[in-house]
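Structure first, sequence second, as always.
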């Protein structure tokens, strides 16, 4: 299987509750390596652009408000099959449907404040990584 990279975000509900270490431990225990990481306060324009694919969805405005409500930690995770593996560790979007042991089952507050973002395809991962990181900031 190929070594891949994926973009991960620890969302404001996670930073607010001081959960960044516990969530990072889940990635590392699963064999994903954190090869880039920084803490940011997203502007409305940045959050809106990042989630532009959801522009027409009813939850878009709320999502942008939530993602700008506090700091986020953006990261690049690297490992075998990293995109799918990260999605598995995160669990379903709605914590009520997330499998036991997943990040969202253990930590998410709601379908919106669900603690983590992870790219959903290798193609989107490349776009999302480039959105936040310069090449020199990623050290594998
Ligand atoms: P993400 O993009 O953040 O990794 O999450 P995802 O793929 O599991 O979910 P997606 O459908 O892409 O939705 C993006 C984020 O929007 C918020 N959301 N709110 N109120 C709602 O019904 C609703 N649905 C989605 C969540 O924060 C979700 O992660
Ligand atoms: Mg998504």
């Amino acid at each position: 299987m190929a070594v891949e990279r994926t973009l991960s975000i620890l969302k404001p509900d996670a930073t607010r509750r001081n959960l960044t270490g516990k969530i990072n431990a889940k990635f590392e225990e699963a064999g994903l390596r954190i090869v880039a990481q920084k803490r940011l306060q997203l502007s409305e324009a940045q959050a809106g652009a990042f989630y532009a694919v959801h522009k027409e969805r009813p939850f878009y405005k709320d999502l942008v408000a939530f993602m700008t409500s506090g700091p986020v930690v953006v990261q690049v995770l690297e490992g075998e099959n990293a995109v799918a593996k990260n999605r598995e560790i995160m669990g379903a979007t709605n914590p009520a449907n997330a499998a036991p042991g997943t990040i969202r089952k253990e930590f998410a507050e709601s379908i919106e404040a669900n603690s983590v973002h992870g790219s959903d395809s290798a193609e989107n991962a490349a776009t999302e990584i480039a959105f936040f990181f310069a090449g020199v900031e990623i050290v594998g």
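Margin note: The longest strand covers residues 72-80.
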